[in-house]
Task: inverse folding
């Protein structure tokens, strides 16, 4: 609980209705979609404007109170769990779409805007914003930017970081920073926009953003390819890319994932197949039809046993929507579902799928794999039970090995979920001691008090399982 | 409640709550866009994910189930729109009912609330005779001039505003139930004895008999909307069903279950299960989504019953329950409609889903198909038809603020459709729609009707056949 005079100051900024520190509010903002993490804040505040955010941050700075920015709380890296208490700033009241500029092809909005709503509004104007994280029905654009969200369309269109042109953010001293603009080219100074994208609330609270839009593709069509063995499916992915084909979506699902997704969505997925690729292309009608034909040939040549082309765009959309539910649907199998997003260069997909299977068998844990195979981003997902500490320990061991394997292939520990606190112990594995040192110096320069989302990004480095470099630096 | 009472409630919740279900919620948040109270408030605690987190926090000993916790549980409409939206298949409806059951068992209600609960849940709904008496009293109130007097003298003003408006929305009742009206109309019916010797009324099918359907008349339905019950039976027999009306049937128990009075609900359920089993029916027809949903879950309700034959009968019963729209669209013979003058403009209608029909019985296509089959009717989809209207059992009386917020938004969406008729499939929703029309002041050009009543305006009915 904050001291009374601090509560009064905060109350004076946002008003009684939007300052909450009753038991119910504290509990209900103590978690996000990340399993196994919960920690109570001291207060929950719903700011209505950038100025209010700035005023609250100033009060926090004056009293060294931790600040955690939060959108919908749908992230999977523990990014919005208030590990050190303090204030949770819920940005969902600041949810206005300020402008769609059809001359400059940009959109400007407040951070709390819902991603799905943003997509729908943009698409009604004939424009398109590609990044589509699976949680888009609930998540916020500000959250997407703070954690550098990806999605199903990463392969062809890139992810959030490729679209943000400018930001408005409140810095740890309460000052209001504006970066970039409606500019395709802008090299004025350090790229602070890129620095803040994916910083996970450890440097600033993002309040407003300008993103670039592209013309909406006129046509899209999906198909699925079924396989008798996992490796052939994974190999197909590499073959498609090697043949210079860029479908907008290229998703991979193994059999257990297929079964639960079908159970939830009931759209006639081939549950008897060992693996499935869901492939979608967009563009002009001629281009799409030509590409799909070519991809179909590649699939068959790579060992697909059956192909099915969606008869209508709606049918294709259903497949992709069902795929978005994979994570949550997998949770039907066991009480706790832990999903990771180890990512490798696309040519290594087949190798990585094999490694995940080997590691799961070694640690005797159930791991299903699905993911955005086309961009090398897999989601090995462990089905477990939080009430069984011994099993959870094995799951952690398995994931550590999966990260290790990914890095050994030139990959990364997180492709699109962000570091938060879940990946913090592994960050050094990826970026090395020099990388950690540089990141810490940036953090200290911008947030010397360490009040911005403390406990995230920087943690004690976990001991490596397979020592590849001789130095083992604890933090 | 004192601290010790919070402790007692915590202990009770640890007993009643299904721990598996609590753990199964993986907090993905996909439920939130389906939750009316979250959409209205934007508060995590007022969402299914939030409420489950609160329940779990109580069970885990992180928080006390204080007054605000209980208020948050009360604020849930119980519409269960979160269940189809949940990829993890969490049985939220069970969790909220288990929580309410624990609260009902431990809570010391204030005197007026206790009295109201006792009067309605124990004294009134379970007793069809008393319900009919209430109906007669209501008729007296409406017909004797008492209603006029109450309105003109301002006596109604003694009540809270939302109750005054609700009172205005009440339909004119006759005090007669389904079978009284049926007999008065001179329609064919014969009396039989069920296998246990109880009274059973049988209404013959028109033409060849497809199957025997047990008519669940409902307690409120049979007082407030007895005409709709009559029309339901007329349509059923026209579609080829022989209709059996067991006299021993009672209230479904939904309002009891939703208020946490599970023992009462189970008692009512076992009476209904026997009544319909003894009537030898193939299907059980419900024309109220709220009742149908609980009837459909009798298997779950009775799953811990000591008597295995009751448990088995409950499973059979649950499998036989169908909404009237399922029976008419797909199982029964297609209905023929009166010819329509092609020159008259189409009547625009819109449909508000009954939450329990859609989310629990999972019926949403059949009512729409039936409406589209009516000549001269144009169905205009209502934006947000899947969002609860705020009626939710007795919610509109206990939570007037949230209820009216939801209702007013609903009426704005109705306005958008340009429809002259709002169609629903549940008495609670129907009353709420009438109240909404009253609030919006659109009574001159908008009406609310039950799907069954809309259909019977147009379907060719051979009412006298079989006499």
Result:
């Amino acid at each position: 609980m904050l001291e009374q005079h601090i509560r009064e100051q905060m109350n004076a900024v946002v008003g009684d209705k939007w300052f909450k520190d009753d038991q119910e509010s504290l509990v209900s903002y103590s978690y996000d979609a990340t399993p196994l993490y919960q920690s109570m804040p001291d207060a929950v505040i719903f700011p209505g404007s950038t100025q209010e955010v700035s005023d609250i941050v100033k009060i926090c700075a004056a009293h060294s109170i931790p600040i955690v920015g939060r959108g919908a709380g749908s992230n999977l890296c523990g990014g919005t769990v208030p590990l050190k208490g303090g204030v949770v700033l819920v940005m969902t009241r600041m949810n206005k779409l300020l402008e769609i500029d059809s001359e400059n092809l940009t959109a400007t909005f407040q951070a709390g805007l819902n991603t799905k709503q943003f997509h729908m509004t943009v698409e009604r104007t004939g424009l398109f914003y590609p990044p589509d994280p699976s949680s888009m029905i609930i998540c916020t654009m500000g959250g997407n930017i703070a954690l550098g969200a990806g999605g199903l369309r990463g392969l062809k269109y890139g992810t959030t970081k490729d679209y943000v042109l400018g930001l408005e953010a409140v810095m740890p001293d309460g000052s209001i920073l504006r970066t970039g603009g409606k500019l395709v080219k802008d090299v004025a100074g350090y790229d602070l926009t890129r620095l803040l994208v994916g910083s996970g609330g450890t440097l600033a609270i993002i309040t407003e953003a300008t993103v670039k839009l592209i013309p909406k593709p006129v046509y899209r069509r999906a198909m699925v390819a079924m396989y008798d063995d996992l490796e052939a499916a994974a190999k197909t992915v590499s073959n498609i890319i090697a043949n210079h084909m860029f479908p907008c979506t290229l998703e991979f699902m193994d059999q257990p994932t297929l079964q639960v997704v079908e159970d939830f969505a009931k759209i006639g997925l081939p549950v008897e197949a060992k693996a499935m690729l869901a492939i979608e292309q967009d563009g002009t009608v001629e281009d799409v039809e030509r590409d799909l034909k070519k991809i179909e040939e590649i699939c068959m040549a790579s060992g697909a046993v059956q192909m099915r082309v969606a008869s209508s765009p709606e049918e294709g959309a259903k497949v992709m929507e069902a795929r978005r539910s994979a994570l949550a649907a997998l949770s039907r199998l066991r009480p706790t579902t832990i999903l990771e997003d180890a990512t490798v260069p696309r040519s290594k997909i087949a190798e990585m799928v094999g490694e995940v299977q080997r590691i799961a068998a070694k640690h005797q844990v159930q791991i299903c794999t699905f993911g955005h195979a086309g961009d090398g981003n897999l989601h090995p997902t462990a089905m477990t039970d939080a009430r069984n500490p011994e099993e959870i320990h094995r799951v952690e061991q398995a994931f550590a090995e999966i990260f290790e394997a990914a890095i050994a292939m030139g990959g990364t520990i997180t492709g699109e979920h962000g570091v938060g606190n879940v990946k913090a112990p592994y960050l050094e594995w990826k970026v090395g001691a020099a990388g950690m040192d540089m990141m810490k110096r940036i953090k200290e320069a911008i947030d010397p008090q360490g009040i911005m989302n403390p406990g995230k990004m920087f943690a004690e480095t976990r001991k490596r399982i397979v020592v590849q470099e001789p130095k083992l630096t604890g933090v | 409640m004192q601290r010790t009472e919070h402790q007692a409630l915590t202990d009770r919740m640890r007993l009643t709550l299904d721990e598996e279900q609590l753990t199964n919620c993986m907090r993905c948040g996909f439920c939130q866009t389906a939750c009316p109270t979250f959409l209205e408030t934007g508060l995590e605690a007022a969402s299914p994910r939030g409420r489950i987190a609160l329940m779990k926090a109580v069970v885990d000993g992180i928080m006390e189930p204080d007054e605000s916790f209980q208020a948050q549980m009360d604020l849930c409409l119980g519409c269960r729109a979160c269940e189809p939206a949940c990829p993890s298949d969490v049985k939220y409806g069970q969790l909220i009912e288990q929580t309410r059951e624990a609260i009902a068992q431990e809570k010391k209600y204030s005197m007026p609330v206790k009295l109201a609960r006792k009067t309605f849940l124990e004294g009134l709904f379970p007793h069809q005779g008393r319900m009919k008496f209430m109906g007669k009293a209501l008729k007296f109130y409406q017909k004797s001039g008492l209603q006029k007097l109450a309105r003109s003298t301002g006596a109604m003003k003694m009540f809270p505003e939302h109750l005054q408006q609700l009172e205005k929305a009440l339909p004119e009742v006759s005090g007669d139930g389904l079978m009284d009206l049926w007999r008065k109309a001179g329609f064919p019916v014969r009396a039989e004895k069920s296998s246990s010797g109880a009274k059973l009324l049988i209404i013959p099918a028109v033409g060849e008999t497809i199957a025997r359907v047990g008519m669940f008349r409902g307690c409120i339905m049979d007082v407030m909307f007895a005409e709709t019950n009559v029309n339901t039976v007329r349509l059923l027999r026209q579609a080829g069903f022989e209709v059996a009306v067991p006299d021993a049937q009672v209230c479904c128990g939904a309002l009891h279950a939703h208020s946490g009075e599970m023992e009462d609900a189970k008692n009512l359920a076992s009476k209904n299960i026997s009544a319909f089993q003894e009537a030898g029916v193939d299907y059980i027809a419900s024309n109220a989504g709220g009742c149908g949903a609980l009837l459909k879950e009798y298997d779950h309700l009775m799953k811990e019953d000591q008597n295995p034959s009751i448990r088995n009968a409950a499973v059979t019963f649950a499998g036989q329950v169908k909404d009237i729209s399922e029976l008419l669209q797909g199982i029964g013979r297609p209905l023929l409609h009166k010819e329509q003058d092609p020159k008259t403009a189409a009547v625009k209608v819109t449909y508000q889903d009954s939450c329990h029909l859609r989310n629990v019985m999972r019926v949403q296509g059949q009512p729409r198909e039936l409406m589209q089959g009516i000549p001269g009717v144009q169905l205009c989809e209502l934006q947000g038809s899947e969002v609860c209207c705020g009626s939710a059992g007795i919610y509109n009386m206990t939570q007037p603020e949230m209820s009216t917020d939801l209702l007013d938004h609903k009426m704005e969406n109705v306005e958008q459709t340009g429809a002259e008729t709002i169609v629903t499939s549940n008495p609670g929703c129907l009353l709420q729609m009438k109240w909404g029309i009253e609030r919006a002041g659109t009574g001159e050009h908008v009406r609310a009707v039950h799907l069954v009543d809309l259909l019977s305006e147009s379907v060719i009915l051979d009412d006298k056949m079989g006499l």
